[in-house]
Automatic annotation (TrEMBL):
Gene3D superfamilies: 3.40.50.2020
Entry function: Catalyzes the transfer of a ribosyl phosphate group from 5-phosphoribose 1-diphosphate to orotate, leading to the formation of orotidine monophosphate (OMP).
UniProt xrefs under PANTHER family: OROTATE PHOSPHORIBOSYLTRANSFERASE (PTHR19278), URIDINE 5'-MONOPHOSPHATE SYNTHASE (PTHR19278:SF9)
Keyword Magnesium annotated: yes
Name of the encoding gene: pyrE
Source taxonomy: Bacteria, Bacillati, Chloroflexota, Ktedonobacteria, Ktedonobacterales
Name of this chain's protein: Orotate phosphoribosyltransferase
Cofactor: Mg(2+)
A Pfam family assignment: Pribosyltran
Length: 220
């Protein structure tokens, strides 16, 4: 699953890899395996160590800003920028985050709080926790480019969707853990067909069931 067994062991010890259940991801796809990034965020020392590894492949002299999408990747951007700055002879690498628009028409990621001026004209490393379809990472990369930044790479904790550069705007991907998983749409999900209960404690199972109930109610 991963070329680095030590990293996989760290994920497992933290309770970040859970199997044998029926999960619904943020992307809407279903699987029997879940990577619980929130279990990692509980442990600052572990996250710090992982972010140091996330920044290792990059030359700090070539990076001005680290960007992550809200919410979890805000933490990753902070720690990764911190460790990159420690390797830089002088100067500081900044950490900012992209937010999702709440407008019903425009839900693109954007840079508020004055962060846009730190993106424009600068070299940016984008960080993300989990890649399933690459949607959030791609939208963050698009936002950086839209605001005039130059994306030099995408560094992630775990690539569980076998996502390639072509799915995130042609940006090279560095993943600490490669964990290709079998996932399904709701329509093709074998667990749904077999009546396996949806996990409502992790992932988006609760929202999925609520949506299904609303659809069923409309049919009555």
């Amino acid at each position: 699953m991963s070329s680095d067994a030590t990293l996989m062991e760290l994920f497992e010890q933290a309770g970040a890899i859970i199997t044998n259940s029926h999960f619904v991801y943020s992307s809407g796809r279903h699987s029997s395996v879940y990577v619980n990034k929130d279990a990692l965020y509980l442990r600052p020392e572990l996250i710090s160590s992982l972010c140091e590894r996330m920044g290792q492949p990059y030359d700090p002299e070539q990076i001005d800003v680290v960007v992550g999408p809200t919410i979890g990747a805000v933490i990753l951007s902070q720690w990764t920028a911190y460790h990159l700055t420690r390797r830089k002879p002088s100067g500081e690498i900044l950490a900012v985050f992209a937010e999702k628009g709440s407008d019903g028409v425009d839900k693109q990621f954007f840079f508020g709080r004055g962060y846009d001026k730190f993106v424009k004209g600068n070299n940016v490393l984008v960080v993300e926790d989990i890649l399933t379809t690459g949607g959030s990472a791609r939208q963050t990369i698009e936002a950086v480019r839209r605001y005039g930044g130059n994306v030099i790479g995408l560094s992630v904790l775990c690539n569980r969707g076998n996502v390639g550069p072509e799915q995130v705007g042609g940006v090279p991907i560095h993943a600490l853990v490669e964990l290709p998983l079998q996932t399904y749409t709701a329509e093709e999900c074998p667990f749904c067909r077999e009546g396996v209960p949806v996990n409502t404690e992790l992932g988006k199972g609760r929202a999925f069931l609520a949506k299904q109930q609303a659809v069923d109610a409309q049919k009555l």
